[in-house]
From TrEMBL:
It comes from Bison bison bison. One of its GO terms (biological process) is DNA damage checkpoint signaling. This is Cell cycle checkpoint protein RAD1. Its main location: nucleus. Keywords: DNA damage, DNA repair, Nucleus. The gene is RAD1.
């Protein structure tokens, strides 16, 4: 019997139940924010948000909408727990990459509530593996509170093209300086490494730009270690002097 149609004993006791017929998409999304070992998960009727933070100054969020799952049930208004993201990703890829075209790993995920482990039922080719991952007390996460009325500059970029730009940057530089301006150079990436300073400029009508809205010139510097570029849209917001990439 396919995993997604099986009923787990006492399943009504679980406050979170979610099923996917292909776990690869979920794994890819979580890898995009995997720059720290632990993550905090928030589940509501709208889906699951996974948050990773570093040093209380960098935050990455992945939101998996409820409609992506073949089955998604949350018995409470919200469910929150902290989990080892490294272990979770290892479990999701426990079958490895399948050599048979058209073969996928199905997932059924269950969580009974505070103090209980997150249970993963993974099936591929008739073989079912059960993983139990201990959950932890959730920590308070940062609330950047980017009210739309207070956003000074906003740029949405295609991160695939931005990643190509990163490959041309001088990685000996400790920081990446980002300039946003309503006038030239519009959007600039600057590095200051062993070979000197270098700049990459992008016009506001560049194919890389999905949205360009700048009210004033701002220049901010970020540590390279805090920047994660993946094949998703990258949104840069500036509210006062509090930058987030």
């Amino acid at each position: 019997m396919p995993l997604l149609t099986q009923r787990i004993p006492d399943e009504n006791d679980y406050c979170l139940v979610a099923s996917l017929d292909n776990v690869r998409n979920l794994s890819t999304i979580l890898k995009a924010i995997h720059f720290r070992e632990h993550a905090t998960c928030f589940a509501t009727k709208n889906g699951i948000k996974v948050t990773v933070e570093n040093a209380k100054c960098v935050q990455a969020n992945a939101f998996i909408q409820a409609g992506i799952f073949q089955e998604f049930r949350v018995q409470e208004e919200s469910v929150t727990f902290r989990i080892n993201l490294t272990v979770l990703l290892d479990c999701l890829s426990i079958f490895g990459s399948s050599p048979v075209p058209g073969t996928f790993t199905a997932l059924r995920m269950c969580y009974q509530g505070y103090g209980y482990p997150l249970m993963l039922f993974l099936e591929e080719g008739g073989v079912v593996t059960v993983c139990k991952i201990n959950t932890q007390e959730p920590e308070e996460t940062l609330d950047f509170d980017f009210c739309s009325t207070n956003v000074i500059n906003k740029i949405i970029l295609q991160s695939e093209g931005l990643r190509e730009a990163f490959s041309e940057l001088d990685m000996t530089s400790e920081v990446l300086q980002i300039t946003m301006s309503p006038d030239k150079p519009y959007f600039r990436l600057s590095t200051f490494g062993n070979a000197g300073s270098s700049h990459l400029d992008y016009p506001k009508d560049s194919d890389l730009m999905e949205l360009f809205h700048c009210n004033e010139t701002q220049v901010n510097s970020f540590l390279f270690t805090f920047l994660q570029i993946q094949d998703f849209f990258t949104e840069t917001l500036y509210k006062g002097i509090s930058p987030v990439l």
